[in-house]
Amino acid sequence: MYDSLAAALWRTRSYIKPELRHFIAYGMLVGAGMLLELATFLFGFDLLTNKVFLGEALTETQAGMLGLPVAEYVTVEQLSESSRYLLRNIFLVIMVTTLAIGFFLGAVLPYYLTWILQRVNQHLRVSMMDQAVHLSLRYHNDSQVGDAIYRVYQDSAMVTNVIQNGLILPLTMLGNYAIAFAALFFFAPYLGLLFLIAGGVSVAIAYVFTPVIRRRSELARRANSVLTSHIQESVGSVRLFKSCGAEDGAISKFDGRSQYALDRAYDIRKSVATLNLCVALVTGVVVLVADYVMAHWVWEGSATYGYGVVALVGFAIWNLGAFQAARDRSVSITNASVELANLWSLLQDMKVGLGRAFFLLDLEPEIVDRPNALPMPGITKGIRFDHVRFAYDQEQPILRDVSFEAVPGTVTAIVGSTGAGKSTLLNLLLRLYEIDSGTLTIDDVDQRDIRVQALRHAIAVVLQENVLFPTSIKDNIKYAAPNATDDEIRAAARVACADTFIEALSEGYDTTLGERGSKLSTGQRQRLSIARAILKGAPILILDEPTASLDVATEHRVLQQLAAWGTDKIIFFVTHRIATIRHADQILFLEDGVIAERGSHEQLMADTIGKYHHFVMTELEVAS
Amino acid sequence: MSSMEFSDSVDSQTELKVRDVFAILKRSFVYVWPVKHLFILKFVLMAGSLIPLIVAPWPMKVLIDHVLLQQPLAESTIRFPPFFQPFIDAMATAEPGQLLVSTILFLLLLFLIFGAGVGGRFNGAFLAQGQDTATQSENLISAGWSMAGGLWGLIDLLCNIRLVQGVTNGLRTHLFQRLMRLPMRVLDDHRIGDGVYRTMYDAPSVQGVCFDLTLMPSISVLSTLASVYVIHYSYGIIIPELIWLALATLPLALLFTVPLAGTARKASQASRGSGSATTSHIEENMSNIATVQSHGRQDDEPGQFAEASNESFRQFRRVVSVNILINIASTLALALVGLWVFFLVSDKIISGELSPGDFLVVFGLFGTVGGAAVTLGRLWVDLQGGVAGVRRVLFYIDLPNDDKVAGQDVSARISDGIVFDDVSLTYPDGREALRNINWQAKVGETIAVVGPTGAGKTSLAYMVPRFIQPTTGRVLIDGHDIQEFDVDGLRNLATYVFQEHYLLADTIANNIRLGNPCASDDDIRRVADISGAAEFIEIMPDGYETMLGRDGGKLSVGQKQRLSIARGLLRDTPILILDEPTAALDPGTERALIAALNAVKQDRIIIVIAHRLSTISSADRILFMNEGRITEQGSHDELMAKADGNYQHFVNLQTGNVLKE
After folding, report:
1. Residues of A whose CB is below 8 A from B9
2. For chain A, how far is it from start to end, CA to CA, in angstroms?
3. What is the DSSP string of A14-66?
4. Cα–Cα distance, B577 to B506 (Å, whole number)
5. Is A295 on the interface with B (CB under 8 A)?
């Protein structure tokens, strides 16, 4: 049953390893503290109860250790009052010293542990984030943002939890348990046996509770994740809810999901608390039974089992001190049992959390560099698609058989009906997805042989949906070229016709944008994205419906400036506007996953029954 | 309202006055009210869990002094407290064996009910949590705690969880409601991640504020009083100083901890702030993953994330340090008192006035007093973190919410039309978005709004459903100023299809149905057909039941657009506003859509913002806008007839007449 947790622990080894020496140092400090506590408490119990309170004589060893004269302290029937005062003060010194050390450890250890675990957590979070941004878009399309947040934030904490709760705490607690048990065993093996039986019963109870706790943990976590996603989505699409008057629906849905998540959280806690209670009852009853038995031994004054050993600290026979020391150890066994039971529940919960955390780490990024991947070739010949096929879903290929060529200094327009695969075609060029068959070459080098990073550096993109970050306009423009100078930024903004509106803003290029670039109109956002792509200065430029929200005059200006700027670039754009398309050097008309027609505007228009001709006529017809 | 007011810097005020705390407490209590029965129950259960603290030391004293040391009960040097006297009376003549069994049975009873006396007292159900504020808040909602063990403790714990959950959920739901009802402009300026973080992780603080200031002090005072009473009753004659010491414990603990309160609050607030920054960073990266990857930034982003995350850890360590410091301070205060008590009690034991069992009793009672003192001492400190969290939540709740202005009901239909009467809009920073806008539309008309980017087309359209309000001038529907209308009613008159396409991670059918939850499947098919969405939906293996990923996932922009239009059509409102509906549609689809709109236009007003001539030319009236003004208005033919007009120039550009040169 522990196997999956053990596997999880094993997986965390690479995160533990760099901090190993800290873990060892921490463990040694904890162990030293525990032994010190045991020694002083056993010694102190005897000293305080038997000697100070009851006035019994010291053993020779004790007198020797404390440097007290034998005549007054060992060979007497009863200690004198003044001796008892002196012993009381000695006890006080020992206790204060121990407490001072305890204070120190109590302050340093938690901080130290936090520090170590945070370092581990940091490694993990960063590698999860790294993984997440490298994953192929296919994964991201299917998963929800909120879920990703929940994973990185909440579930990565699970790894440090595994270390803390699966390793450090159980070891500490088992250490406590073992010490208490050993001490008890020296007092009386029967007591030890009683607690062993109680331990066995506790394990059996935990065994019965385990599946319930696991199931409830899974439910609770899932409910919480759903809730997080819901909040994320609602807040992100709040305009939509407003415009549909659907706010009340979203609120009541939130209410339901929130209540559901709370109910599931309550369920698992109920199980955990009940398990804790059962274990506490079992071991607690044993403590009371031990009380009964020990009281009889004290009456009889019988010898303790390990008197030869425990005599060192003064418990050769059962007396009040021995009773209290043994009881103290029994109580600490009970405490340790309950804590272990609680820990066990916690581990079940963690096991569920871990599965989710590692799920993300285990996903292979679909797109990785091939061994010996090449740098990006300097483009002189151009890009060539040769019988390329691609499908998101194998049943319905988006691109069935696409072949074409694009050379530097030309503009290629991609035209086709909605959903024909225009954007997909360009995503393949970027290698955001892997082509299924056929070849895609750049200057005769297979695109898949080029390092992904180098490939993407060579392509500048203006996407259909323009993503801006809530930073300054300047930072947004230089997103893909972090080292650009202000002059270069201005020049790029000029080409994109964005300079006028930026300069009209009160803070100009330093204006901070809101989430998703709000504050700007859609057309303004598009021009910022274009400026960003221009600044990158890459040899290939992709414009995916870049100008849909621009008015015609602005669009015309942007494209003219782009053409003048990009004399040695390969430019692709997707659009529906005839006025824009007609200036392209070549037009690809996509239909049903193949390029149905290809050529310049004049060439394609010459075919009066052709598809492109029909497309243009429809557009102009609607217009007039 | 300037955009700066919504930035985090406004909410970073950390000085906390007593008056503020009580103001926040008063507001927090609104959320306790619905679960007041649990609150009262919790109070009773907490008060009950004081019983073992006062009672349990006594059977232990009997066990030690009268059972093990066999001192006769009658020779006890101290008075047993009244609640324990009956047991002593009953045992007055008992044999040692009998006394042993009775005492152990008494202990067993205490243990079963309250979990007292033999250790293993559990008082919570904490589950795994991480090393930062965000993950720990999660436990705050549902972990619960109890001062007792045993059956009482279990019930107390469960009651506690339900109470905290109830209060937190109340606040969380209220916050969510307000988020949904915030005016458009406020939402524009805020980071979504921050909102999520606030909703989820700050709301639990409310329970701390409520309970720290009510239950905890009263229980602490109650337990101190009970202990002092018992100490006075049983030990007041032998060691009178004990009473003064017990009473001095509380002020002493406060003296040591209160100076640290300010530091604790600042640390807690900083920790929450940086945790929020980390979440924002993740959210941004995940939602813009295509941009990150296509700009080749996937190797740099994790580095920036690492910085944000590291900062949040550093801030959390500060919180840990401050807590450790406070613990040490309060323990130190208690240790001083404990030392004094130890001297007094051990003196009397050595002199024979007290017996060894009294040592346990006195320390047990002082433990209770000390516990209460630490709780009260920490109270102000713990409160700081809670108040910081609640204040961040209240900050959102208090943002002006112009939606909720009550107004007169709106009829479901429009008989006359819309009039814009000299409407102007000025942004808070002084920019003029719209100037002196006048136009009107009658039922049955289609209005096209045309003009260059940034001309104010969207602002104008936003005013119809009152997403924004004019600075001066009026918008009238059927002769009534829309300011007088109930906002929800008004929005049920108008449908707005946005330029950005918002799709939910739900099925296609449910995405469309959002426009009208009561719509039948046939209605959905009909609008999907009109908007041209049906053709791609129907070839999907799951059809209308296809689950969409985040932001519409696998759909192309044109497909998303058609779904948004279908959703808008499904609402079937008398006013339909389409913001660039056809930008990403191919001509065939566009034509079908326009035909469909024409078919339903008789009894409604359709407002279309568009650049495409084909969409514009069929409108009854065209508003040509430039720099916040309407420069020309009229039908396509009228405007085309205007020599050298803006619109004519615009059309010529579009059809390529100008480009031909």
Report:
1. none
2. 75
3. HHHGGGHHHHHHHHHHHHHHHHHHHHHHHHHHIIIIIIIIT-PPPPHHHHHHH
4. 24
5. yes
**A119: amino acid identity, one letter:** R
Which helix (H) or strand (E) segment holds residue B595: the answer is helix B587-600
- Judged by a CB distance cut-off of 8 A, whether residue A264 touches chain B is no
> Over the stretch B359-384, which tens digit does the pLDDT of each residue have?
999 999 998 998 888 888 777 777 76
Whether the model clears a pTM of 0.80, i.e. scores above it, the answer is no
What is the dihedral sign for C-alpha A273, A278, A281, A284?
negative
List the beta bridge partners of residue A512. A472
- At A345 the three-state DSSP class reads helix
- Chain A: nearest CA to B63, how far in angstroms? 9
Q: Give the sheet arrangement for strand A594-599, strand by strand.
A: A445-446, A437-442, A383-390, A399-406, A594-599, A586-591, A411-416, A570-574, A540-544, A459-462
Nearest CA in chain B to A579: B656
Query: CB under 8 Å to A500, separation ≥6 — which residues?
Result: none
**CA dihedral over B405, B407, B411, B416, signed as positive or negative:** negative
Contact (Cβ atoms closer than 8 angstroms) between residue B363 and residue B349: no
Does the beta-carbon distance from A244 to B514 stay under 8 Å?
yes
DSSP reduced 3-state for A501: helix
Give the SS3 label for residue B72: coil
Question: Which residues does chain A have within 8 Å of residue B359's beta carbon, measured at their own beta carbons?
Answer: 53
- A418–B558 C-beta distance less than 8 A: yes
**Which of these, A235, A128, A240, lies nearest to B281 by C-alpha position?**
A128
Cα–Cα distance for residue pair B582/A4, rounded to 1 Å: 54
Whether residue A576 lies within 8 A of chain B, CB to CB, comes out as yes
Distances (CA, A) of B216 to B222, B329, B577: 10, 20, 56
Neighbours of A328 (CB within 10 A): 16
Helix (H) or strand (E) holding B626: strand B621-626
The structure tokens 């070849």 sit at A439
Residues on chain B touching A537 (C-beta within 8 angstroms): none
CB A298 within 8 A of CB A50: no
The tens digit of pLDDT for each residue in A186-232 reads 888 888 899 999 999 999 999 999 999 989 988 888 888 788 777 77
Identity of the residue numbered A135: L
The per-residue pLDDT for range A362-421, each reduced to its tens digit, is 655 566 777 787 887 878 888 999 999 988 777 778 888 899 999 888 889 998 876 778
Calculate the CA dihedral of residues A379, A382, A388, A390 and round it to 10 degrees: 50
State how far the Cα of B396 lies from the Cα of B203, in Å rounded to an integer: 11
**B465/B489 Cα distance (integer angstroms):** 10
The DSSP H or E segment spanning A134 is helix A81-134
* Three-class secondary structure of residue B503 per DSSP: coil
Which DSSP letter does residue B501 get? -
CB-based contact (8 Å) between A101 and chain B? Answer: no
CA angle A92–A94–A100, rounded 5-degree value: 100
Which of B121, B122, B432 to mutate: most A Cβ within 10 Å? B122
DSSP H or E segment with residue B155: helix B150-181
A and B: number of Cβ contacts within 8 A:
512
C-alpha distances in Å from residue A192, one per residue of A177, A280, A321, B561 = 11, 17, 18, 74
